[in-house]
Amino acid sequence: MEEKIDLSKMPFREALKLAKQNPNIKGAKEIITQDVELKKGIQFFTKNIQNLSKNIAVGFGNYIQTLQDFHLKVDSGLLSLTKEMSKRGWYLSPEALNGLEISDIIDGISLTRFENKLVEDSTNFLPNLIKTLSDQFPKRKSILCEIERSFRQDMYSSVICLSYTQADGICNEAWGIGCFDKDKNRSYELKVFRKLENMELGFISIFAQQLNIEDKNEITMHSCCDELKNEQKRKNSFNRHLILHGHSIGYGTKTNAVRALYLLDFLDYFINKRFN
After folding, report:
1. HEC profile for the chain?
2. Taking 70 as the threshold, does the pLDDT of residue 273 lie above it?
3. In the structure, what pLDDT confidence band is assigned to residue 4 with cuts at 50, 70 and 90?
4. pLDDT at residue 191 is higher than 70
5. Is the whole model's pTM more than 0.90, yes or no?
6. Do the beta carbons of residue 133 and residue 170 sit within 8 Å?
């Protein structure tokens, strides 16, 4: 009877059960051996899957850490770059940095080279700026177009004066406070800075920090501060107060005009919420 049973044609579980019950059946030994090898294989596979899972977890953790380190380096690089450029009299929106490589931000870029690039690119940058501002503030279109015409005619003193007045104007129109309004009870802190601090900017808040009066951007710094006490410095300063009150007379350079234009772009970036 036992010899007629063909274990090879039976489902493995049934054949294994029968082989264990009757080890002398033909093929029983092979079935039991297969079962042992199969269990070894499953154990080996399970062990390796566990190791693989651990390696993946460690690898993913390392990846996340690397990503976090990268973001920290970018944040630190951006903060350093914008603070240093602010000390040179620039207010820059994130879009002003579009031409830079990530390595420029993380490892640092020559500030003079970057400054020169902003000036060189100003001819292409200006039309879009004027259109954006004109669409947002149509009542100011004629003045904004005059800024563009003056720039193309190298009338940089006019560009600067008009840009400063419009910086105040668009902030008043959008937020009810002037770009250059200061809180005398808070060390002459710019009110616009507090306005942006109250907005949910996330990562972009790095750029809003440029309005921190402690960075002493010459455009907005108090006209009586130590940095502007030198008479020669005052006569050539691009400080808004010294220019519009007639103290500075040597401010009309192309670089200073481009600084004023980027101030308008910086303000419009936050007024128009281009970061959304």
Report:
1. CHHHCCHHHCCHHHHHHHHHHCCCCCCHHHHHHHHHHHHHHHHHHHHHHHHHHHHHHHHHHHHHHHHHHHHHHHHHHHHHHHHHHHHCCCCCCHHHHCCCCHHHHHHCCCHHHHHHHHHHCHHHHHHHHHHHHHHHCHHHHHHHHHHHHHHHCCCHHHHHHHHHHHHHHHHHHHHCCCCCCEEHHHCCEEHHHHHHHCCCCHHHHHHHHHHCHHHCCCCCCCCCCHHHCCHHHHHHCCCHHHHHCCCCCCCCCHHHHHHHHHHHHHHHHHHCCCCC
2. yes
3. low
4. yes
5. no
6. yes
Dihedral of the alpha carbons of 203, 205, 210, 214, in degrees to the nearest 10: -120
**pLDDT by residue (tens digit) across 108-158?**
888 999 999 999 999 999 999 999 999 999 999 999 999 999 999 999 999
19, 31 in Cβ contact below 8 A?
yes
Is 3's pLDDT higher than 60? no
pLDDT computed for residue 65 by the predictor? 67
- For 183, phi then psi, to 5°, come to -95, 105
CA distance 133 to 262: 12
The position carrying tokens 């690898």 is 59
Closest CA to 257 of 270, 243, 267: 243
Residue 247 CA to residue 219 CA, distance in Å, equals 14
Query: Distance between CA atoms of 66 and 76, rounded to whole angstroms?
Result: 15
Q: Report how far Cα 211 is from the mean position of its chain's Cα atoms.
A: 17
d(C-alpha 192, C-alpha 274), whole Å = 17
Cα distance between residue 66 and residue 119, in whole Å: 36
Instruction: Give the model's pLDDT for residue 16.
Output: 74
